[in-house]
Design brief:
four-stranded antiparallel β-sheet
Length: 298
């Protein structure tokens, strides 16, 4: 397998090979940064990237204690530093908060198996094994929750995104970053909710159909989507026939298309691989994008 990356590299967060000199310039085209028999989906945060290659965690970027990589790979974080983790031994989620320099923890009972946790700037989302998605977060940003906030289901407690439950098409994957969350269903549809970052309010939304409730996003004229990832103001999608489409801002090269500064329409990425190679997954950090490539001919 191979891992390709593009985008912000100011902290060396795309420099996984310790034997090569660091070049902290942003990367504007997808470039191979790792190879191995097995490569897991990278965990990309603002100033560092963690990737498990052949069973070993590798780190790029600013992470002073790199021995923490396995633990950091098991938690999700939001912008204020709060982290959420699933306890292995007990059916609880633990939310860790820094309150006046002291770490305080709050536990949430888990009533059903969890498939994935993600964090965004103001909260968290859960994907349960049965395909249901639940969110919790800051009540000041209700659009990021994708659901009604009520006395019975307050913003600060996990509650299901009912618009997705009514689809009768279970969610198989979720991605979140910035102020938005996306859900990919088993039938290949993508639903997104949230808002454009308040700090960039002078810009047009990076997704024209970004609303407070889950909204189906038409990608590549309705093609089935195999994988999907969100950055802070960009998104990347992999179709079932292994084509990649991108949209959003490209100021750091996160779209992998050096000829444009941004796009508000889903645009096909021209990316050529050797024979017997196929893109099998995508990922994103706040200002980076990744392609997972298999060397087996499917």
């Amino acid at each position: 397998m191979e891992l390709y990356a593009t985008g912000s590299n100011a902290w060396g967060q795309l420099e996984l090979d310790p034997s090569t000199p660091h070049d902290l310039n942003d990367i504007f085209e997808f470039t191979k940064i790792a190879a191995g028999d097995t490569i897991e989906t990278p965990i990309a945060r603002l100033v560092y990237t963690i990737v498990k290659v052949d069973g070993v965690y590798r780190v790029a970027g600013h992470l002073p204690d790199r021995s923490m990589a396995p633990k950091l790979a098991e938690v999700v974080v939001r912008a204020n530093g709060d982290s959420l983790r699933l306890e292995k031994a007990d059916p609880f989620l633990t939310l860790s908060k820094n309150v006046n320099g002291k770490i305080e923890e709050e536990s949430f009972l888990v009533t059903q198996p969890i498939k994935k946790l993600v964090g965004f700037d103001t909260g968290f989302a859960i994907l349960y094994q049965d395909g249901v998605v639940a969110t919790m977060g800051d009540a000041r940003f209700p659009a990021t929750l994708g659901r009604q906030v009520t006395e019975k289901e307050p913003a600060e407690a996990f509650a299901s995104v009912d618009d997705l439950v009514q689809l009768q098409d279970p969610v198989k994957h979720i991605s979140a970053c910035g102020y938005a969350t996306a859900a990919l269903t088993k039938m290949g549809s993508v639903y997104i909710w949230g808002q454009h970052p308040p700090s960039r309010k002078k810009e047009r939304p990076f997704l024209p159909d970004l609303f407070a409730f889950a909204n189906c996003t038409d990608i590549a004229d309705g093609r089935d989507i195999e994988d999907f990832a969100l950055g802070e103001t960009h998104a990347i999608a992999l179709t079932s026939d292994a084509e990649v489409y991108v949209t959003g801002n490209n100021e750091n090269g996160q779209l992998g298309m050096p000829s444009i500064t941004s796009t508000r329409t889903w645009t096909r990425l021209e990316f050529y691989l050797p024979q017997c190679s196929r893109i099998i997954g995508v990922a994103a950090g706040p200002h980076t994008s990744f392609l997972l490539v298999s060397n087996v001919d499917y």
